Amino acid sequence: MVSNKTKKLIISKSKRPPSNEIEVIDEYGDKRCFPITGELPLTIYVDKKEVVTLMTLGHYPESLVIGYLRNQGFINHLMN
């Protein structure tokens, strides 16, 4: 008997804080805290070969990779 179980794709809810507080000196010479956003590189590999390095804020990296691979024609369906 052949099993027809459907595989379920599990995506984390991984994310980084939207910004970090840094101390700056404003135009008047006063110190104050200022939020700053930083990007991170995310390199995608397919069959152990580097495909691309994307810059990301770090939210939902799996969704970013799936969207990129689908857009570029590497995959047609999520279960490929």
Structure description:
The chain is 14% helix and 34% strand. It is built from one helix and four strands, in the order ββββα. The chain has a domain of 52 residues. By secondary structure, the chain is an alpha+beta fold. A hairpin with a 2-residue loop joins strand 3 and strand 4. The longest helix is centred in the C-terminal third of the chain and has 11 residues.
Arithmetic mean pLDDT: 86
**Total count of helical runs of at least 4 residues:** 1
- Write the H/E string, N to C: EEEEH
Could you tell me how far the N terminus lies from the C terminus, measured between alpha carbons in angstroms? Answer: 23 Å
Beta-strand proportion: 25-35%
Main beta-sheet annotation: 2 strands, antiparallel
Poorly predicted sequence stretches spanning 5 or more consecutive residues: none
Helix content: 10-25%
Largest sheet: spatial strand order: 1-2
Report the C-alpha radius of gyration, rounded.
20 Å
- The multimeric state of the shown protein is single chain
Structural class: alpha+beta
Number of strands: 4
Based on CA inertia axes, which overall geometry fits? Answer: elongated
